[in-house]
Amino acid sequence: MAFAVAPDAVLAGEVAVAIVAAWAARTAARPLRQSAVVVEILAGVALGPSLLGLLPGDPTGRLFPASGRGTLTSVAELGLLLFMFAIGWELDVSVVRARRTATIAMTAANFVVPFAVGAALAFALYPAYAGTRSGHRVTEAVFVVYIGVALAITAFPVLARILGDSPLRNTPVGQTAMAMAAGTDLCGWLGLALVVIAASATGSAASWTTLPLVVVYLAAMFLIVRPLLRTALAHVRAVGSGGTLPLVVAAVLASSYVSSAAGLHAAFGAFLLGLVMPRDSRAVLMLDIAEPLERTGAILMPVYFVATGLSADFHTLGWAGFELGFGVVALASTAKIGAVAAAARICGTDRREALILGVLMNTRGLTEIVVLDIGLSIGIIDAHLFTALLLMAVATTAVTTPVLHRLTSAASPATPAPWRPGSRPDRDAPSPSGPARTA
């Protein structure tokens, strides 16, 4: 006898499965020295059609019925928006400026070379893999820029998590890596924003409407919203009503709504609000905002991984699809590690530290997943290419921690690296990094 289950109860069951699966994966993978983001992504993929869906009786369809996918995606998007706000807030562009010429040169190499490799690859892939939007094939230019950005990404929050658990955390190499990742992510999000605007516009009239809206939105965020946030947060803290967190969450959701209405993805609105968030009372705000959001993210982000995993089906890739996926892994890794290591050597570092920087910059993680999810949702790529690029994101992130451990195991954790690109000892003392967000 079959019993009808209310939609809200179905959603509750789906969220429960996602949370338990993520926890079990993290626990099982702890001895492997893997980043939490890698095992949680794999847990989400395993719950989808790639593994669980292959069993008799379609367990994936029973646990996550198609009728409830939209609601599950909405819950996952809420976790994504809070996560994107955390990235924007943690991204301190002044860190990039503080390390001047050498770091900026290496950051340029970290973005430009992989972008060029990705763009060249996109020209070859466009005839077979470009997606459609509203029945219209995306333009080659949009597809090329998107794939270039996808290969150029470095996951700033995942890198923060990895460095936090390594002896490099407060060394010049670790701080330089964080500055490079911040600059690279900023370039990546700006490039992706332009791609989303172009892909979302269905004609010249739409383009002319979207661009002014985005310009007005960006100006309003920096010139109006930023000082308003500073005043509002100071007032709320003075009153002591405990309203800081509700105020910020409401601002994140409102910014996401306006961003989507202006022609960008909602994730950009959350990211931009984090970027304009006042940093003059950061220590206080960490207690009021960062820690509660981190706990909330620990619950909601596994839901995002599951929703993403349900879109990936490695079973349908076939041999050609896996060849593509591993080929992209090789291209992306060679471009990142080679470009950064070469730039670091030119700037005067030794080979081991240059290789360490290259390996760290090859970390893509959740930031790459977000980029791929946006591309799939607006039709720039299809499900087949999404799955192949997801393989690249997971593989490049999975190898970072064990390779980094091998490279640093011979060196004493207490011995700081001697190389400081373009720095003075009295100016570039290691600064404590903020706690890693859920990643």
Automatic annotation (TrEMBL):
PANTHER family: CATION/H + ANTIPORTER, K(+)_H(+) ANTIPORTER 1. One of its GO terms (biological process) is proton transmembrane transport. Residues 410-439 are annotated as: Disordered. Residues 18-406 form the Cation/H+ exchanger transmembrane domain. The chain crosses the membrane at residues 6-25, 37-55, 75-96, 108-129, 141-164, 176-199, 205-225, 232-254, 260-277, 298-320, 369-395. It is found in: Membrane. This is Sodium/hydrogen exchanger. Keywords: Ion transport, Membrane, Transmembrane, Transmembrane helix, Transport. The keyword Membrane applies. It is a multi-pass membrane protein. It comes from the Bacteria. One of its GO terms (cellular component) is membrane. One of its GO terms (molecular function) is antiporter activity. It comes from Catenulispora acidiphila (strain DSM 44928 / JCM 14897 / NBRC 102108 / NRRL B-24433 / ID139908). The keyword Nucleotidyltransferase does not apply.
